[in-house]
Amino acid sequence: MKRRTFLALGTTTIGGLCIQPSVSAPGKQTEKKGDKMKSGKKLPFKISLAQWSWHNRLFGRAEPKMDNLDFAKEAKNLGIKAVEYVNVFFKDKANDSKYLAEMKKREKDNGVKSLLIMCDGEGNLGDPDTKRRTQAIENHHKWVDAAKYLGCHSIRVNASSKGSYDEQIKLAADGLARLSEYAAESKLNVIVENHGGLSSNGQWLTSVIKKVDLPNCGTLPDFGNFPPETDNYEAVEMLMPYAKAVSAKSYDFDEKGDETRIDYYRMMKIVLNAGYKGFVGIEYEGKRLSETDGIVATKKLLDKICKQHVKA
Q: What domains lie within the chain, and their CATH numbers?
């Protein structure tokens, strides 16, 4: 679908709930009716589901297999009404207006809204080669347009580069800035996850975002995705001031329902202390539990923490 076609269609509501958040601050969204508990107290955060949590089912490696178009319904069946797509599961559909319209219809039918599209495999935004870097930027344009049509607030990209530490800051910042300028026309954010390489260095990534210095370019802190020597809590704390989404990575749970590798209570305290009030996206990557059971376990833990903060 051409860009002008997307813009003509505009951003509509999904299930009466999708309100396009500010391009600069999706983590501080306007309060809506569904954001409160029965007691009337405001929820400190909301829960969404990252599509990668079901990647084995979506790739056909686990039963029951899942089609991308059924993601919204499957999320709703678990009591989750906001989703985060991964482009690999509809990689050839970014310009397919009929397919995207069907995705949007399925979301509306199930009362689910799209938050973002995680984009992989479109080139390195910090590529040292100027032509390849420009091509990578342009490759992401179609995902900005698709995200706009679906009612998302952001696309998640990778800040991949090569060279020295400082050279990679300069190159990644250039690619991100140019893509962010394009996304700003659609009032969308471009957000970077700690996703390998120097992007998993909290200090490096914050330096990149500061160098870009645009209100619609920020971070998507993931509770995992850090090298073994890194203090995950310290790194997430570095990234939170620029966060426009949060990824609650999980692997396994003990008999109390607590995550075994990540102190969720400590991590969520860091998230909330940063003033973040947006969605926290479940991203289960464990092996012992099935994908669905892992998602449910992560949701139960986040629900528990949410209630604790309401009482506090």
A: 41-311 (3.20.20.150)
